[in-house]
Write a structure and sequence with these properties.
Elements: E1 10-13, H1 19-30, E2 34-39, H2 42-53, E3 60-64, H3 70-84, E4 89-92, H4 107-135, E5 138-143, H5 147-150, H6 156-176, E6 181-188, H7 194-197, H8 201-209, H9 219-230, E7 241-244
Helix pairs in contact: 1-9, 3-4, 4-6
């Protein structure tokens, strides 16, 4: 175990059974936090939690959670409080894609992406903030995307949702700052996950070539930015949006 930038804290990460969410949960755990691994798929959450627990250290709690359902989110937060002892860090990471061109995208696919990313983040921020404002401290980190800054063809739903997360982050940060609760966001660029590696190889290569650092990022590199925002190293930061994209949109 490392010295622990979040030693003794309790964290909840949504969409944590794989990809960026799992990397975030692992990094927070390695730095001393007890972590709730939340995912829509409870079995995958349990498998991921068991994997993290093999490293020893603080508790790891699997949680089945539908981030689009108000009661499910409230229950997840309540369970984390009850079983881990509190909630100091919340990472709203859960997401899906339903890509299609504007003219071919179905309304239900637009709604599905907005519901998971934007409604899900809002429900998480609201439920987490209720706990944190009473404690007088806490860090909420919302996962946006560079797609929310530049827009991606075929992703009007995803880009809109990720842009909305930035506005939500800043509004919530202004509401909660005086209660000691910080709300920040991370905007990953092209990150090497199962989702991006399912892209046609020529499309992936084209996007990678447009990045000044000439490579895709790794989930652990996004997790490092989340760890920074979760820790006291960023104690005077709120409403900030950190880009983790290899310089793609600078």
């Amino acid at each position: 175990m490392s010295a622990g930038l979040v030693e003794g804290r309790m964290a909840l990460v949504t969409g944590a059974a794989q990809g960026i969410g799992l990397a975030v949960a692992r990094t927070l755990h390695q730095h001393g936090a007890a972590v709730a691994v939340a995912d829509l798929d409870g079995e995958r959450a349990a498998k991921a939690a068991a994997e993290l627990a093999t490293d020893g250290g603080p508790a790891v709690l699997p949680v089945a959670c539908d981030v689009t359902d108000e009661q499910s989110v409230a229950d997840a937060v309540e369970r984390v409080q009850r079983e881990l002892g509190g909630l100091d860090v919340l990472v709203n990471n859960a997401g899906i894609t339903r890509d299609a061109s504007l003219r071919r995208m179905r309304a239900e696919d637009f709604d599905a992406v907005i519901n998971v990313h934007l409604r899900g983040t809002w429900l998480g921020v609201r439920a987490g903030a209720e706990v944190m404002r009473e404690a007088g401290r806490g860090s909420i980190v919302n996962i946006s995307s560079l797609s929310g800054k530049s827009g991606n063809p075929g992703q009007t739903n995803y880009s809109a949702a990720k842009a909305g997360i930035v506005g939500l982050t800043k509004a919530a940060a202004k509401e909660l700052a005086h209660r000691g609760v910080r709300v920040n966001a991370v905007q990953p660029g092209l990150i090497r996950t199962a989702m991006t590696e399912a892209m046609p190889p020529e499309v992936f290569a084209e996007r990678e070539a447009a990045i000044p650092m000439r490579r895709a990022g790794e989930p652990s590199e996004v997790a490092g930015a989340v760890l920074f925002l979760a820790s006291d190293l960023s104690s005077y930061m709120t409403g900030a949006v950190l880009e983790v994209g290899g310089g793609r949109l600078m």
